[in-house]
Amino acid sequence: MFSRVFSRLGLIKQHIRTMSTKTSEAQYYTKKIASAVGDPSLRFNHTCLRIKDPSASVEFYKKHFNMTLLSKKDFPDMKFSLYFLVMTKENLPKNEKGENLVFANRGILELTHNWGTEADPEYKVNNGNVEPHRGFGHICFSVANVESTCQRLESEGVKFQKRLVDGRQKNIAFALDPDGYWIELIQYINESGEGPKTDLGNRFNHTMVRVKDPVKSLEFYQNVLGMTLHRVSEHANAKFTLYFLGYDIPQGDSTGSAETLLELTHNWGTENDPDFHYHNGNAQPQGYGHICITCKDPGALCEEIEKKYNEQVVWSPKWNHGKMKNLAFIKDPDGYSIEIVPAELVL
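Structure tokens predicted for Lactoylglutathione lyase:
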């Protein structure tokens, strides 16, 4: 069995190397979307999590992680509200009217509240880490000093899934938010020389989801959505591999300080099990919602994807086909949703 797993891992590594230079080597998503690959306006804008009680969750992120409520939008007809938070920073993009351009940013956390859940004692969010509903794993904030950050959070009463002293990895921790979502904490200032040497404040570094077949998922995010594979981290002892993808990393940043990356976690062998699948967060019980990418002309992006991939990709809904206009949702190979909206959209 182990020989088959390691053989499969070798094929995956070789496939990743070849597909980065030769589109023809791709097995599943063989056509590169020019509207994505060649578009510098593309951003990984936000990650959406459903929450039970906004008064608890919004204040949690503001108090403990210095996030700012950038925008709130109520939808009375559908009985839900959206809260968009960002790490406190200067020079946030605005339009000519001085309105915040939520979708022109990186590193946004969208909290979705379905009205009434806060009063339901039986309602509980699925955090994505408990069987049989595993899929979404965590969000990650990178900080200048992870030890002092964890000490401060503990003194403020924040609960932890894993402290720095727990387990094998002593350089990461996992805090818990009010709904039990995991928040990984890592440090971006280090002695190796990689990344910034100064305190940049907290960064919304990445969002992690588990994937069944890394070859298929990597082709989708690179060839269809135009992301770049920035780093691969293999953990042979625990039999899993991490893949970090995203759009351009600003000059001076590293993968540890950048905003925002997508981490795909592959537990070896899942790709060989025809009955295996992950929970996408949108089936019951719900929790994780989606990630969102934005660009200057999402209509053109969606049109090219439809034309080149037709029935091979799943939309829910297609561009401008749902109740809410100026958006689309495409699903990746594991059924996770990716929202696509204009960067200039004003809520």
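Residues 1-9, 17-24 have pLDDT under 50 and may be disordered.
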